[in-house]
Amino acid sequence: MTISTIRLTGVAAACAFFSINAYAEDSSLTNPAISAVLDGYYQNTERPMSERVEGFGLGHTEVAMSANIDDMFYGKLTAVIEVHDGETELGLEEAFIQTMAMPYGLSMRAGRFLSDIGYLNNQHVHTDAFSDRPAAYRAFLGSHYFDDGLRVSYVAPTDLYWTMGAEAFKGDSMQAADEHGERDYKTIGVYTAFTKIGGDAGINGSWQAGLSYLRNENGRMTAEEHDDHAAVQEDHDHDHSHSAQYTGENTYVADFVYKWAPNGNYKYQHLTLSGEYFRVADFKPLEEEHDDHGSDAHGDSGKDYQDGWYLSSVYQFSPKWSAGVRYGQVDTQLMHDDHFDPQKLKETEVSLAWHHSHFSTVRLQYTNQQGTNFDGIEDDNVITLQYVMTLGAHGAHQF
Q1: What's the CA angle centered on 63, arms 61 and 67, to 5 degrees?
Q2: Which residue intervals make up region (Disordered) (predicted)?
Q3: pLDDT by residue (tens digit) across 323-336?
Q4: Pick from 151, 129, 136: which is nearest to 365 by CA?
């Protein structure tokens, strides 16, 4: 063996040793963060389009694992366990990779993940201040929209926080009903675009506003779905596949959130005000839109869109206690025979939560629901007692 060979072998060994040590020093590469979120509840009656049923039950229980794959990529896996009709169901909510070192503020995400449209959708439901998502989310996004696809996003180098992005998804859970099994759905069914801007409001406050657009290539109903569509919509009340209950080709979302805390310290006291508006257009069959010409044949309202909104206020008045109030409503149209019936659901909600720590929450919630021909529900009062407990390391929550 020559001297040059010995030198080369020594350098290679030193580089390998340094590389191993460098990876060992970064604990996120060798020790992934593993956590579980336990969600249990008791509810005195059912709510429309909700996964929670009457009586005792398990809610959105999840097991998650995440880590930096290397210096270029981050990965996360989130499995969800739910109980439906006495059977335990295991689903995959997230399984994605995320770039970490792209230049110019760019990043990419691929796999299965939560869409970044709106304010609440990219957040896990166990972080919510209420037991269920607002009615608009349950109607138009299946509570929270996650799918297989690709996202490209960009953070601008501005004084204010400004991000924008676009996504492409399979869109299976956003497809309009196909009772006869003959519809030719597009493989890439959903495209989204979003922008969000935010900043500080003095030393005590911060804010964020956003606009989002969702194009659903498979969202418009077809004329052949007249006879059975109403029955399918009723069946969706207990659907745990997280499918959208009411779809359309074009969905527009506007959102706003303001957060206040003394000197910006959220640990002991803070207030969050938020709201979102959804407008879902182009849902009627094309043949019937052309024949209708604005008449009331498709419902007494004469509306050619569906919409929904909510306003929420949550105040943590001490380190261990928070209270929230939320009002929301959703206006949809249900196809019945040769016309559309307008529907309206209004929900007024009040919650009181006890947080023994950052990892444990016990919540008591009262909901007054008022439905006008909405899937046949009657006005009712819903009482929910819920616990949300986190085991293990869990990442920071979104703004």
Answers
A1: 150
A2: 225-244
A3: 999 999 999 988 77
A4: 129
